[in-house]
Amino acid sequence: MSDATTTDLYEVTMAMSYLREGMTGPATFSLFVRDMPPGRGFLVASGLESSLDFLSGFRVDAEDVDAFASALHRPPRDLAPLLGMEFTGQVRAVQEGRIVLAGEPLLEVTAPLPQAQLVETYILNQVNHQTTIASKAARCVLAAAGHPVVDFSLRRTHGPQAGLQAARLSAMVGFAGTSNVAAATAEGLSAVGTMAHSYIEAFGTEEEAFRAFARSHPGPVTLLVDTYDTEEGVRVAARVLRDLDRGPGSAVRLDSGDLGALALTARAILDAAGLPDVRIIVSGGLDEYAVDELVRSGAPIDVYAVGTRVGVSADAPFLDSAYKMVEYDGRPVMKLSSAKVTAPGQKQVFRRPGFADVIGLHDEQPPGAGVPLLETVMQNGSRTVERPTLDESGEKFAADLAGLPPAARRIQAPLAPRATISGQLTVLADQVRHRIEDEVLASFANLRNHERSATGSQHSVPR
């Protein structure tokens, strides 16, 4: 069974209906985030690469047909029209690592309607989750103000794949390492790690534990010092590191309590022991808000290890993202329902200095100093550009971040820039709205009038 079954059932029922009705013309779907989550001044576009991997390998095989049929309680022959379907369409997208704003298409898919519909769920899943995590991690890098940040999130992420993605994305936006061995191996990242409190508890004393750990690991070591009494733990660690001449490159880790105050105490103890090169690492429920507070306090912390709150983006765990059809068979379409109006037609985002972005039509000329963000990355179901390296995506992020207005970079109460709509897109939206009102809404009115007439006729019949 392939990833084709990783979809919502209604995608299957719609695709089947389209095929039965012969509706296989090209459809364009636009994926965008309606509104910025609370506490966010920007988003980092992510999830494109895994989406392209999925699309390039997409195929409905016999096992998928059997699964669809079972879910619908129908014989497999009813679902046979789906057998062998592959993705043969085009994708235009914002490259991973670029900073984007609410309302801006992150990608647009153009393909035969049943194909474009059937891949919706998977693509939304990938882009939604990864953009959420990358945006949260980017704020941690900002909050750390140049201090290294490392990823400790794997044990609390929503599954191993989510953990791999968190490690990869955090590295893309500037993290220095990850505890996730699989991610470090797959992506060429620095693997980082220390010890757990259970390790300390397994020995009779902290000193026994520290010395045993050092015997097993030549070179710099990081010792966890808050299992019992943190201040005493730092003193014991200092004695062990000094006795074994393991100072340079080694560290102590604080994982609980008042981290700012404990860091001050730890720094004083280490310096007094002649260990100024021993670093202080802190962890324990940190995110950008806690890191920002610690940095602003001047606490002598060298490295911030963030886990749960970042790996699940605890304060904003999802995006109000949508994948909406904007054109079918050359006809622009839009949704008019309250609070969820969509703009019609294939689009382009033009990036201007200061993030004065303009959302326009895909074939209109860029406004002054505007640079198009959406690029063709897939044609006829195959990639048209090479997969970027993590460093290349990171460079795109760093360049965009440097041009982001200071108010959008704030950790507390950021102010997100808002993209404007081009004149041509505004005109098209008005035209499509009027067509819908004239054709679709008018038909509703005619139907209601017919029903009233029928009801009136029934009442006039003698009894």
Automatic annotation (TrEMBL):
GO MF term list: nicotinate phosphoribosyltransferase activity; nicotinate-nucleotide diphosphorylase (carboxylating) activity
Nicotinate phosphoribosyltransferase N-terminal domain span: 6-128
A GO CC annotation given for this chain: cytosol
InterPro entries per the UniProt record, alphabetical: Aldolase_TIM, NAPRTase_N, Nic_PRibTrfase-Fam, Nic_PRibTrfase_pncB, Nicotinate_pribotase-like_C, Quinolinate_PRibosylTrfase_C
Catalysed reaction, written as an equation: 5-phospho-alpha-D-ribose 1-diphosphate + nicotinate + ATP + H2O = nicotinate beta-D-ribonucleotide + ADP + phosphate + diphosphate
GO biological process: NAD+ biosynthetic process via the salvage pathway
Top-tier EC class: ligase
Alphabetized UniProt keyword annotations: Glycosyltransferase, Ligase, Phosphoprotein, Pyridine nucleotide biosynthesis, Transferase
Post-translational modification (record): Transiently phosphorylated on a His residue during the reaction cycle. Phosphorylation strongly increases the affinity for substrates and increases the rate of nicotinate D-ribonucleotide production. Dephosphorylation regenerates the low-affinity form of the enzyme, leading to product release.
EC number(s) from the headed UniProt entry: 6.3.4.21
Quinolinate phosphoribosyl transferase C-terminal domain span: 133-308
Glycosyltransferase found in the keyword field: yes
Keyword Transferase assigned: yes
PANTHER family xref list: NICOTINATE PHOSPHORIBOSYLTRANSFERASE
NCBIfam families reported for this sequence: NAPRTase_put, PRK09243.1-3, PRK12484.1
Function per UniProt: Catalyzes the first step in the biosynthesis of NAD from nicotinic acid, the ATP-dependent synthesis of beta-nicotinate D-ribonucleotide from nicotinate and 5-phospho-D-ribose 1-phosphate.
Name the UniProt record assigns to this protein: Nicotinate phosphoribosyltransferase
